[in-house]
Design a protein that fits this description.
By secondary structure, the chain is an alpha/beta fold. The chain has a single domain, classed as 3-Layer(aba) Sandwich (Alpha/beta knot), CATH 3.40.1280. The chain is about 35% helix and about 25% strand. A six-stranded parallel sheet has the order 3-2-1-5-4-6, with helices on both faces. A two-stranded antiparallel ribbon has the order 7-8. Strand 1, helix 1 and strand 2 form a beta-alpha-beta unit. Helix 1 packs parallel to helix 2. The longest helix has 14 residues. Bound molecules: S-adenosylmethionine (SAM). The site of S-adenosylmethionine (SAM) has 16 residues, from strand 4, strand 5 and helix 6. The site of S-adenosylmethionine has 16 residues, from strand 4, strand 5 and helix 6.
Length: about 180
């Protein structure tokens, strides 16, 4: 069975976070997740990501939600597990073996201080090192570990353009 990974980003500071929020969605998409739930954003992030899907392929979903707790509880009820990324958690290298076995994962990342309930609802509180950095860096490392780097070789169907990897310059072909 294919691993199903969805990201849940809690919080968004209007204007200040706009670029980071879009990047959280783009990294989720490019690193193998199939959907991101986001709170506090407007339609523009969804439109940007949809335009990228149309151009480069895939069916990544951006869902704007109001109540992250009910989404997280429903996820657990449907048999999924939750991994919350936090500098206070257990080092990723000490949990990765267990994570490989999970087939349905919701990955929680924060934009600012994350409510206590996220730590309690999580099956895994995972640190990508115990120093503070960024939710995008933490997410990228986490997805790369659980997909073991294979996400970059997968086929992404659809789209209008495809890159022909080249050592120099840019080569793009129309599909
Ligand atoms: N004090 C926060 C914490 O609990 O990790 C740092 C807030 S940081 C601005 C925003 C988000 O980045 C956090 O909610 C967390 O998801 C992620 N993050 C930052 N550093 C991390 C680390 N070392 N390991 C895992 N996630 C991290």
């Amino acid at each position: 069975m294919k691993k199903e990974v969805t990201v849940l980003r809690i919080g968004h500071r209007l204007v200040r976070d706009d670029r980071v929020t879009t990047h959280a969605a783009l990294v989720s998409r490019a690193f193998g997740a199939s959907r991101i739930y986001m709170t506090g954003i407007d339609q523009s992030v969804k439109d940007t990501v949809n335009a990228i899907d149309k151009r480069w392929g895939g069916h990544f979903e951006v869902e704007i939600i109001q109540d992250w707790k009910s989404v997280a509880r429903a996820w657990k009820k449907s048999g999924g597990k939750i991994a919350h990324l936090t500098m206070y958690g257990i080092n990723i290298d000490d949990t990765v073996e267990k994570l490989y076995k999970e087939q349905k994962l919701l990955v929680i990342i924060g934009a600012e201080k994350v409510p206590r309930e996220a730590y309690e609802l999580a099956d895994y509180n995972i640190a990508v090192g115990n120093q503070p950095h960024s939710e995008i860096a933490a997410l990228a490392i986490f997805l790369d570990r659980i997909f073991e780097g294979k996400q970059f070789k997968r086929d992404i169907a659809g789209g209008q353009l495809r890159i022909v990897p080249s050592e120099k310059g840019k080569q793009v072909e129309k599909i």
